[in-house]
Give the backbone structure.
Amino acid sequence: MISKITSILYATAATFLAVAIISFPDQSFEASIRGLNLWLEIVFPSLLPFFIVAELLLAFGVVKFIGVLLEPLMRPLFNVPGAGGVVMGMGLASGYPSGAKISARLRQENVLTKTEAERLVAFTNASNPLFIFGAIAVGFFHDPKLGFLIAICHYSACILVGLCMRFYKRNEDDRTEDDQRNIRGSTFGRALYALHHHRTSHSEPLGKILGDAVMSSIRTLVMIGGFIILFSVLNKLLFLTGVSSVIASSIEKVLTIFAQPKELALPLLSGVFEITLGAQMIAQTDHATLFAQVILVSAILAFNGLSIQSQVASILANTDIRFAPYFIGRLLHIVFAVILVIILFKPLYVERTMLSPSDIPVDTHTDYTGLSVIALEWLSQYGPLITIGTILVGFLILLRKSHP
């Protein structure tokens, strides 16, 4: 019975989407262009280097090397092997869905067990600093100081989620086998041995390693681009058909309980589907206080949005990693992020903005968000060239493989 209901729901949703696109072709096209521009200018060129580097680190044994070094830190804190430090570092630096992508690759290489991978995916998918400082703080709120507050709350909440997820299936003895545990010597020596052993046991030509890294990264990014365009269109169509207004009316009742303006309902709903549009709409809401706006933006950043969650689900579908722990991590992330904003809003933002210039040390006048803004502008200008060039390289690699 449940499977029949699910089939009907899937068919109804697909039919609704098809009819809506036919009914609003111009608006659908504009939404598609918006999603395509976001992927072409920002997402592809910013994520591609991290994806390729992650593949090369795994192929050359660097993940094994770092894993041995970080084992004493990652295992007690997060109950994952040291290789999880690579996932955590690159996931938080490059933004979602990098954590899921790298965790899935490590699982495919048996560096992680299923449970360890599920723990990692739950807390290593976060927004990158470029988006928080450049797009949200400067672009939407026009206040660089907000970026510091949002970033501290966002990444601290990630760590707290990781500390909670260490207890996930803690009674299951399924730790990955450490091939170097019986090797005598210093930790650094065992790490070097792990690197060399992995490299010699995977002796593939350098050209093949580079080609596979590029193609794997391009395939993942093309999938991500498809989801971005799809949810950009879906979000627009829900608004045009009035579905968003119906759902937003229910959210308005919840907001009134917390004495918040009902104008925040539609931006919050948009953020549930797609983070960028939601954060922009929340920042442009006139009748809301800045405190409420920062709380809601932090909440949708923690939730990741259904667009990114769909990307993660698609990446995890190629492995035995379950989606449920990741989703539980999103709910925990929301709780921690909101609580941290409530606690830190006054000391990290209000009190800092109330300081007069004479009270601020000379060396703190430097605008540390400038690098993020410059990087965002650079990606907007040169991102499409990088994207098109990389796709051409991928096409040439495929062409060479099909005609040896």
Observations:
- Confidence is low (pLDDT under 50) at residues 356-368.
- The radius of gyration is 23 Å.
- The first helix runs from residue 2 to 23.
- Residues 39-355+366-402 form one domain.
